[in-house]
Write a structure and sequence with these properties.
Elements: H1 2-15, H2 18-24, H3 30-39, H4 44-49, H5 53-62, H6 66-74, H7 78-87, H8 90-97, H9 102-110, H10 114-123, H11 131-134, E1 141-143, H12 148-158, E2 167-171, E3 177-182, H13 183-187, E4 206-207, H14 212-222, E5 226-230, E6 236-241, H15 242-260, H16 273-299, H17 302-307, H18 311-339, H19 347-376, H20 381-411, H21 420-442, H22 444-447
Parallel strand pairs: 1-2, 4-5
Antiparallel strand pairs: 2-3, 5-6
Length: about 450
Amino acid sequence: MKERKLNALHELLLRGSKDQIQEAIDSIHPADILEVIHDDPDHTKLILEKLDDDTIADIIEEEDDEDDQYELLKQVLKDRQRGVLDEMSDDEIADIAGELEPDEKKELLSQLDIDDKENVENLLNYDPETAGGLMTTDFISIHANNTVLDTFNYLHTAVDEDTPKYYLYVVDQHNVLKGVVDLRTIVASPFDTPIMDITNTHVKTINYKVDQEDAANVFKKYNYVMMPVVDDDMHMLGVIEIDDIMDVIEDEATEDMNLMGGTSSEERADNTIGESFKSRIPWLIVNLITAVMAAAVVAQFEGTIEKVVSLSAIMSIVTGMGGNAGTQSLTVLVRGLSLGEVERDNAMKIFLKEVAVGVLSGIVIGILVAIGSTFYAHGNPWFGVVAFFAMLLNMICANIAGFVVPVVLKKCHADPALASGVFVTTVTDCMGFFFFLGLATLFLPHLL
């Protein structure tokens, strides 16, 4: 069904006249048009020529990546680009401009009117990874000394159709935020009601310097669709909307997954060969170094392995299971740090929980490995004893590493997901080999 609708839309956009498309445009979502463009990039310019400036602006804003947004804008005829930009929100333009080279940025900004250019340049001053970088300056603010009638008159004359209208923010003559009022309350109030009488003065705000991930956590905590952004003196700077927060959540989750896997946070499935190679090779080299470290540990016990060759088959199980346990702990901790679930007050409790889980997991998996090792060693129970204690100790180390590595990275002001898996695996490999081969050396007479 969906494919049939997209095919029909594709036909309309390619074969239909401008008038036919304009008649149907109200029932077509910009995301569907963007999908058609992605499926048929060769006809992008032809499709855009048939659309009005407002629709093109909506399509560009549906594009996820700023570079792709700019490439789409460049497909629009030069003399129409200014009109398209006039229909776009200032924060979207700022996001695009922030990714451009200086010459391209200058050219883009030159096409804006004075007010929009000033707003965009102001937004570009904020760190893109903070609340200031996420916010838009398109919001409704009303003066604290207004009445409900004054507010209605203002809304009728001064509010742009693209301005978010969920809430109205009440400010004083110095633009200091005094509170928030929703439209339903205004509509239900008599015209002579002073705005401050119906204003919620206990409004939740986000400082412009707050990291975007922390801003997302605030949204999730309070289930808001919009929040005001303020400076240190509570001056109203802008608002963040829920759609921007959803993008942040998706980007942060993707970044964490990439970093934990040892790739660049920016890598995507559709990157070029060169981009993916540059992203992955540094961490592969780090992996090689850690593998050498593990091999060095094994080399210290060459004599033991030469005497009991069957140890080589079992030791990979000990290190492999330790790596799995460490990854489990690491995944939970990285996500917990990201969501603010791990704090100074409960860090020790969580640490002890991870140790306890490591002990219990080590006992259960250790028993299973011990039974298998005993059979593998033709009934020699000492193989089982060595395997059990090596597995138990490595499982405990794995869970400790899964906690400590991301916490230390967080303390060092680095992303907790920064290839934590590489470091945890290094610990479980080195310690797994050390515990297993060390215990085997200690009990060597019983294993021969």
